[in-house]
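pls ignore typos typing on phone
pyridoxal-5'-phosphate + seq
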Amino acid sequence: MAEPALHPLNWNQHRSAWSLADGVTYLNHGSFGPAPDVVIAARQRWFAELERQPMDFLARRLEPLLDEAAAVLAKFVGCGDDDLVFVPNATTGINIVARSVELAAGDEVLLTDHEYGAVARIWGNVCSKVGARTTLAKLPLPLLNPADVVDAVFARVNERTKVIVVSHIASYTAVVLPIADICRRANERGILTCIDGPHGLVQAPLNLRELGCDYYAASCHKWLCGPIGSGFLYVRGRHKSKMRPAVMSWGQSFSGRPSSWKDEFVWVGTDDPSSYLAVADAVRFIESVGVQEFRRRTHMLAREARNRCAAIARSEPFTPDDPAWYGSMVTIPLPHVARSSAWPGEPHPLQRALWEQHRIETPVCEWQDRLCLRVSCHLYNTPADIDRLCAALEALCPRFAT
Ligand SMILES: Cc1ncc(COP(=O)(O)O)c(C=O)c1O
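k done
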């Protein structure tokens, strides 16, 4: 398929860094991001070393190796080497935070109505155990002004609010939320902030020291292209000693170094640390392309997807067409596509048809009674992928229209 004249870039420049499955149009990096070959190879090298001499690797070498990898990641996200620990994914990070914050009966944990379902469930669960509760800030739609978002959050704050949980970039709607302003105002009122950040990494600027949040949980296996099973949890200094692991083990160093808050998280039973160690390679890969270059390319594609799919779906996107509101991932409402009675037990028929008939991976999700298509663009995507998606939507949508 010819590349449209609209995009004079060499769109195939980075694609060869990946060994993607043939014949698949992969527009779902936001759910599960394939890692480039260089990262997969690094992980395999670490794994092979581990299996060659597990005692030496796990008992002697692991702690300094993890420190080295964490230092590379810490520099990338703008915090100190001692401020973050590796965890398998953002879900684990959020679980650790939810178990570590001391909630009491009557306390409130405030979330927005754009939060990821599992994250809302985690907080609901810890609240229910102590007689606390979660509350919901409904954000205005369409989102036109970041200040309105902040106001909508703080309109739900009261003296019982102990924690604000907010996504850096929301999962279903793909919108970038004004977390810096939310953290600033929360700090003024002594409210803790827990940022759910798996989509923030690389897609959006991130400097944790400047952000001023209390906790930031992220998955590296999304936009950073770390191996599946790599994530991190950032914890602000004063909370470190209060952090409780999701899985309890020895809570001490095996190599005899001075004790640290990280000890609870470094050893959580015998496991394969190769995905954490290869995160440093993922950072180096993204930096070799350039973060700005990543954002420029992937936003161009997301913008193309947004404008063309919205025209096909005859819908209004959730935000203005502005990189401040969305990065490499975009959500298009599908108001004229029938919802499925099978939802949420199985993928929507449109998602199934995109995959089964067109080999296109793009999630169709339901958010607040709206059906939405979410399109993720990474460095391996090209305008031809968007062309294929649009052609498939045009072919399929009449069948799903009410
Ligand atoms: C906003 C948000 N938070 C948390 C998660 C959970 O991420 P993981 O499955 O890597 O733990 C996701 C997954 O897509 C997400 O979109």
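The first strand starts at residue 25 and ends at 26. The chain has a mean pLDDT of 95. more later
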